Every structure is written in structure tokens, then in C-alpha cells.
UniProtKB/TrEMBL annotation:
It comes from Hymenochirus boettgeri (Congo dwarf clawed frog). GO terms for cellular component: Golgi cisterna membrane; Golgi membrane. GO terms for biological process: carbohydrate metabolic process; protein N-linked glycosylation. This is Beta-1,4-galactosyltransferase. Gene3D superfamilies: Spore Coat Polysaccharide Biosynthesis Protein SpsA, Chain A (3.90.550.10). It comes from the Eukaryota. PANTHER family: BETA-1,4-GALACTOSYLTRANSFERASE, BETA-1,4-GALACTOSYLTRANSFERASE 1. Its cofactor is Mn(2+). It is an enzyme of class 2 (transferase). Belongs to the glycosyltransferase 7 family.
Length: 367
């Protein structure tokens, strides 16, 4: 019996050689299908490449003069020619009385933020020629709508601070804020107290200038979109609402950690922040409880505008999870009127004015 004459009982009379042939055909089809699939995927993937990404990156580091021409978030925002003059002020930058516009025309939208190349402080100084000593800035083209003190609790995180300054100074300038940056450095090696440092920042910043808004930011968090404005709103504002660490979302609805902003009025209404949270965790939940107990709500940007990157790091020394935090957050309402800005005590050891920030070294005491 030849192969050709063999019958496949399953196929009802087709020659037995045929399954081999159809297998070959099926394989060819599969290979073709895979190739096609690969091509389509490749095209799709490449179309997703933001070819302007490098421009964005450069844009983020540019002085506002060149940004002034870029007045929308869309594709058409990047000029092919950047004028050399610094005096490019479009009419829509300010209203008739000279106030800055509600939405700054200098914003560019999403930004590329990476922490793999170390940044040099002198590079940052050079890239921000409009800054005044102490990391102060005021837009020259219009009157800023808010006077914002940025308060950063700190201890031994120099490289993180450099990244923060590198990325955030240009963003804050494009946001047309009248702002200053305050690094509140906890002296010594006792347990870290983030919320107390924030209270101290509030008090110390007010000694410098009539700030009406306070942004409280961790040193390792950077905004990925300059439309996420570091300013105050009618309700306390949570700014870092879509952290990469939490999959670009909130870990839980009441989360108020990372970066937040409170007006002077909102801050005083809740008696500031607690001074009694030593070590990691819970102080931000206490702040949330304070806000809720005073009948305020949380204002937030959407989760695209609110994207932020956090620098990966190991837990700091002397900042272990605070075992008392569970008890403390259960009693916010009882303690908040006596633990806060009205019970704050500390000693300023040094106040240094650097080109990009004011550094205040403080003794916060012991747990
Ligand atoms: C929470 C912490 C917050 C912290 C977030 C995100 C507490 C209180 C006891 C439940 N809260 O669990 O402080 O910001 O995680 O890391 O630990």
C-alpha cells in the first residue's frame, strides 16, 4: 500500500498525505499571522513613542522665556524657533490689572522625570537664572495669584534634594507662582518627626514673607505634569494623588501623604499638624482627620495631571514605623486642639540662604 492510497478514517476518505500538507499550510499561516501580529504591535508601539519626549525634557529645564511661547498643552506647543530675547510676554499672560492668568500659559503638560543621572547643584543654578537667593521667585510678567512657601522636611537626603530642585524649580516658575523653598533639616540623630518639621517650616517661612499658601512636600517626590499646580484651593489640596509607587493611584481614599497644600486659613483652622508622631507613618492620616473634623473636604487633581514620581530608597535610620500611630490616629479629635501649631516648641540652630533654597536646621527635641 502506498502512502497516497492510505485513507484517514477520521476525514472520511481524504488521502493520509493530506494532513501533513494541511499541517504545513497551517504552520505557514501561523508564521504569517505571527509576523503580521508582530508588525502591527511594532507599529502601534512606535506610534506611542512620544517623539517630543526629549523636547519636553529640555523644555522642563528651560528658563520661562522660551516657555512663554508655548501656551497650550497640545501637540502644537513646541516652537520650531526659540527667540533669543527674554522679553516675550504674550497678552494672555496677565489680565488687565496685571494679575497672572488663572491658568498659566507657560505650562507644557506631561514631563519626563528620571532619577538615573545625578544632577549637579551648579547646573541647576545655571538653569534657573531668574531665581533670587534662598530659592525665591516672583514672575516678572504678571502679579502672582498666590504667595507660596514650599516646605520640605529633611535629613541627609542631599541627592534627593538635588533632583527635587532640578525638576521642580522650572515647574514652579512656569506655574507663575510667587514662591520660596524651605528645607527644614532635623538636627541630630533622634527619631524623625515629619509633621513637626512641617509645622516649623510654616512658622519660619512666615518670618520671611507674607505667604498665604503652604505646600508641604516630601523631598523624594516630583510632579510629572506641570498642570498639577503647587498652590492652594478652596479646600485643602492633595497634590501627589497618582504616585508611581502606588501604581499611579491612591493607596486608599483618605490618603493625604506625599505632597499637599493648605492655605494659611485652612492650616490655622486645624491647629496645624500634630507634633507627637515620632517615626514613620500616621501623621498624614492625622492631618486628614483634622481636615475632615473641621468639615473641610480634599481637593485633588485628576489622576493624569496628578502623576508623580518617587525616588526609590531604603528606609532612613531613625525613622522606623511608629508603633503608637494606631492609637494616635484614633484620637485626633481629642488631641488636635492642644497638639499643633499652638503647642509647637523647637530651637533654630542655623538658617542658611542658599541660591536654590533656605535651609533651616532645627532641634525638634525628643519623643
Ligand atoms: C499608611 C500610613 C501613612 C502612609 C501610607 C502610605 C499608617 C497609620 C496606621 C494605619 N498610615 O498605612 O502614614 O503615608 O500608608 O505609605 O501607618
Amino acid at each position: 500500500m502506498t502512502l497516497g492510497s492510505m485513507k484517514d478514517p477520521q476525514l472520511g476518505g481524504s488521502p493520509a498525505a493530506l494532513p501533513g500538507a494541511s499541517l504545513q499550510k497551517a504552520c505557514k499561516f501561523l508564521v504569517l499571522f505571527c509576523a503580521l501580529h508582530l508588525c502591527v504591535t511594532l507599529v502601534y508601539y512606535m506610534s506611542g513613542w512620544d517623539l517630543r519626549i526629549f523636547h519636553y525634557f529640555v523644555e522642563n529645564q528651560q528658563h520661562q522665556a522660551s516657555s512663554l511661547i508655548n501656551s497650550t498643552y497640545g501637540d502644537d506647543m513646541l516652537p520650531s524657533v526659540v527667540p533669543s530675547t527674554t522679553d516675550v510676554t504674550p497678552a494672555h499672560t496677565k489680565d488687565i490689572v496685571g494679575n497672572c492668568a488663572e491658568t498659566s500659559p507657560l505650562l507644557v503638560g506631561p514631563l519626563r522625570v528620571e532619577f538615573n543621572i545625578p544632577v549637579e547643584i551648579n547646573e541647576i543654578i545655571k538653569a534657573n537664572p531668574s531665581l533670587m537667593e534662598g530659592g525665591r521667585y516672583k514672575p516678572s510678567e504678571c502679579k502672582a495669584l498666590q504667595k507660596v512657601a514650599i516646605i520640605i522636611p529633611f535629613r541627609k537626603r542631599e541627592s534627593h534634594l538635588n533632583y527635587w530642585l532640578y525638576y521642580m524649580h522650572p515647574v514652579l516658575q512656569r506655574q507663575q507662582l510667587d514662591y520660596g523653598v524651605y528645607i527644614i533639616n532635623q538636627d541630630g540623630s533622634n527619631t524623625f518627626n515629619r509633621a513637626k518639621l512641617l509645622n516649623i517650616g510654616y512658622m519660619e517661612a512666615l518670618k520671611d514673607y507674607d505667604y498665604d499658601c503652604f505646600v508641604f512636600s516630601d523631598v523624594d517626590i516630583v510632579a510629572m505634569d506641570d498642570r498639577n499646580i503647587y498652590r492652594c484651593f478652596s479646600q485643602p489640596r492633595h497634590i501627589s494623588v497618582a504616585l508611581d509607587k502606588f501604581g499611579f493611584g491612591l493607596p486608599y481614599y483618605q490618603y493625604f501623604g506625599g505632597v499637599s497644600a493648605l492655605s494659611k486659613e485652612q492650616f490655622t483652622k486645624i491647629n496645624g499638624f500634630p507634633n507627637t508622631y515620632w517615626g514613620w507613618g500616621g501623621e498624614d492620616d492625622d492631618i486628614y482627620n483634622r481636615i475632615a473634623s473641621k468639615g473641610m473636604s480634599i481637593s485633588r487633581p485628576d489622576s493624569v495631571t496628578g502623576k508623580c514620581r518617587m525616588i526609590h530608597h531604603n528606609r532612613d535610620d531613625k525613622n522606623d514605623p511608629n508603633p503608637k500611630r494606631f492609637d494616635l490616629i484614633a484620637r485626633t479629635r481629642q488631641t488636635m486642639n492642644t497638639d499643633g501649631i499652638n503647642s509647637l516648641s523647637y530651637n533654630v540652630l542655623r538658617r542658611e540662604n542658599f541660591p536654590l533654597y533656605v535651609k533651616i536646621t532645627v532641634d525638634v527635641g525628643n519623643p
